[in-house]
Amino acid sequence: MTSFERLPGPLAARLAGYRMQRDALGRSAASVFRLAGEGLPALYLKVEAAGPFGELADEAARLDWLKACRLPCPEVIARESDGERNWLLVSALPGTDLASASALTPLARVELLAGALLDLHRLPIASCPFDHRLEKRLPVAKAHMEAGTVDEEDFDAARLGKRAAELFAALESMRPTDEDLVVTHGDACLPNFVASGGQFSGYIDCSRLGVADRHQDIALACRSIAYNFGEALLQPFLDRYGLPAPDPARLGYYQLLDEFF
Question: Which of 82, 131, 151, 187 is catalytic?
Answer without folding.
Answer: 187
